[in-house]
Specification:
- It is built from eight helices and nine strands.
- The protein has 213 residues and is α/β, with parallel strands linked by helices.
- The chain has a single domain, classed as Rossmann fold (3-Layer(aba) Sandwich), CATH 3.40.50.720.
- α4 runs parallel beside α5 and α7 crosses α8.
Length: 213
């Protein structure tokens, strides 16, 4: 069954995937409003609502009914500076976004997690992503879509040495381990937003590549 999201929250609109997703949303004639809070202003658009400031402070101020919310937030341990700071973004802030979206009426939450997410993992990054997924499931969303992309490919505003070194290899990795272009992921997320089904759906990277073609 398919639906038509009209009132959308997009968290992380200035990130690698978020930029592509925002462009797609604003070019969809069925979308009435995109609420995209950011620290720096986005290009003006008649259907874009762009509150400016730090996201934790903006969340309680967001208003207007929603039907769908996308969360493209994410950082790295190096960028965050510590494990605690990383968790504050990739776990705590994502949960805060989901809670505010639910309070505004959203029924479908789509979030970017990561390949290998596992709450019992010995790898800190994977464990945080897995704990996030479990916390989101506990919120009992009518519809929750968890995307688990492999390494994201594309041109970032900031330099990430590890991704730059791994990208050539990940382009040829098998199955779900192969890297995925951010524009492909954005297309997949939009297609998933159009599908109406109850409960939780976890989408691995190989399926995301197919959906985003």
């Amino acid at each position: 069954m398919y639906l038509t999201p009209q009132h959308i929250l997009l968290a992380g609109a200035t990130g690698l995937t978020g930029e592509h997703l925002l462009d797609r949303l604003l070019n969809e004639p069925t979308v009435t409003r995109v609420l995209a809070p950011t620290r720096r202003p986005l290009a003006e658009h008649p259907r874009l609502d762009n509150p400016l400031g730090e996201l934790p402070a903006l969340l309680p101020l967001l208003t207007g009914l929603l039907d769908t919310a996308f969360c493209c937030l994410g950082t790295t341990l190096k960028q965050a500076g510590s494990q605690e700071a990383f968790r504050a973004v990739d776990h705590d802030l994502v949960l805060a976004v989901s809670q505010r979206a639910r309070a505004l009426g959203a029924r479908h939450f789509l979030v970017i997690s990561a390949l290998g997410a596992d709450a019992n993992s010995s790898v800190f990054y994977n464990r945080v992503k897995g704990e996030l997924e479990e916390a989101l499931k506990a919120q009992d969303w009518p519809q929750l879509t968890i995307a688990r992309p492999s390494l994201l490919l594309g041109t970032r505003n900031e330099f990430r040495l590890g991704e730059r070194l791994a990208a050539p290899l990940m382009r040829w990795a098998p199955g779900k381990y192969r890297g995925i272009h951010a524009c492909t992921l954005a297309r997949a997320l939009w297609r998933l937003a159009l599908e109406e089904q109850d409960g939780v759906r976890i989408v691995e990277s190989d399926e995301l590549r197919k959906l985003g073609r």
